[in-house]
């Protein structure tokens, strides 16, 4: 048996990109649902996995399964090398200054909660403000509410404009010397909005505030450079970027990471333990108690290798054109209304259809093998901005095509002609 490939160099497609090449690598896209070829337009919830990721995870379990960092035998060394190669790949992918600035977590939600607990508890206090735009995912709202309740700080919502952009004038007015933290989604999961995170970060830093950027919806669509953004924290989930579930990453500036206290205790985060004195491992291991998701890190490495084997700028350009095509095509459906119209956005279209509940829309489309999301999308304040509690969402990825958009629109036209559900 062979050991897993831990190379962090892009390979496989030589930089060339086409949706057909991407689709050829993703087995699940070739199945049928309800007798129809699958159309996966639920990428905002999770992305599908290329065979390179599936094979990497299977190869790890078949050839190198071992715990890491605590063994002297061959397989322990191989597993450790694979795990740390995943960390190195994340650092390169984000243009982080060092792999030591990357902490493995279960995903975006855990990363945000880690920052709230490990950094926030010691630095947010009574009278401090945490600025949270209305477009945020619940995972970037609730942890700050819990922290604010514990520390007697305030969570201050930053309003949206009608087109789904963050109101930058209001943001500037809300910033003050009381602002301890600003949190921003790099891309909205429900509106697709891409805020000017670099400019917002620079403005927050003038007041001495730290900035956390939620990259969950951005990393699969946009090249990310954490040093250019100058974010103090950047977080994302592997399953949003073609990797397995249960793995994600937290980036923190080295000088910030070095001030963070242990979050959980035991296992990998210690150097020595005694009843009189316990000493801790250096970061990032300080924040990685217990056995990590080793196969997840192997899968994340493979996913990043796969994605970066394509020209990222070509992917972004293609998804932008696909979004424009879908927007124009969906405008032909009477009674269909798309939420938000921000000029900078990722390939997400959240919509309502007059006379039809969002859940019924999703169920109808599923009959035709088309998977979309319906509900509040864990972004209830953003929906409330438009007077809604629920909507349907089609979210695209590099492996989606115009032909699939045509199938979506044709099915919506047929639904429009059926009996209303609301």
UniProtKB/TrEMBL annotation:
It catalyses: (sulfur carrier)-H + L-cysteine = (sulfur carrier)-SH + L-alanine. Coiled coil: none annotated. GO terms for molecular function: cysteine desulfurase activity. Residues 39-408 form the Aminotransferase class V domain. The keyword Transferase applies. Keywords: Pyridoxal phosphate, Transferase. Its EC number is 2.8.1.7. Residues 1-21 are annotated as: Disordered. Its cofactor is pyridoxal 5'-phosphate. Belongs to the class-V pyridoxal-phosphate-dependent aminotransferase family. Csd subfamily. This is cysteine desulfurase. It comes from Streptomyces coeruleoprunus. The lineage of its organism: Bacteria, Bacillati, Actinomycetota, Actinomycetes, Kitasatosporales.
